[in-house]
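User: Hey, quick favor. My workstation is busy. Could you predict this chain's structure for me?
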Amino acid sequence: MTPSPYSMKFLPGLLAATLLLGSPLHAEAPSGKGIVHEDFSKPDATATWRWGAGKWTVADGVLKGTETAERKHPAGIACQRDYHDAVIGFRFRFDGGSTAMLLLRNRFGNLCRLTLTPSGARLTKDKPNLPKDTPEKTVELDTAKLKLAPGEWHTVRATVRGGHFHAVIDGRTTLEGKHPGIDVAKTEIEFLAGGASILFDDLVAHHLDAKQP
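Assistant: No problem, here it is.
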């Protein structure tokens, strides 16, 4: 019998943890203090998360986000955690959708994000949601041209430390940027899915020391 494409999660999960924490294991998390470790193996994995736009389901061991026509906004779901500096790893797959995003938020709303499409990636410092009359604008930090095949799993390892924002896609493409506005306390790790559907899996995040080189 052919295994389910969403089964046999141990090996992908181990790979995600290795990409996240480096070698040796926990090399970038000396405190060993985790923020979240979620493999979406349970249907109620996101029961306590903040649900935003779109439709979200957990089934066959993965999280699936689908944009809905009535909202005209990427589907969003956020894991609410308090942290400042962190390394965040996860896997994603274009499953009919066109855009996958990792968005970090703070008490003023959107803070910074990594946007992924089949043809490229983009790092930005976002315009905050509050105050509504803020003069701040969204600032592009870095971009890269990529070929991320739909229907295949891809890995992300993102690091936020002080004002630095760094991301590695599939272990080979690196984006990085710096903005003083990123050096703040954060409150959420959010996934966004644009289009028909995006799959997410193996979310692992650990605290970092901002003073660590």
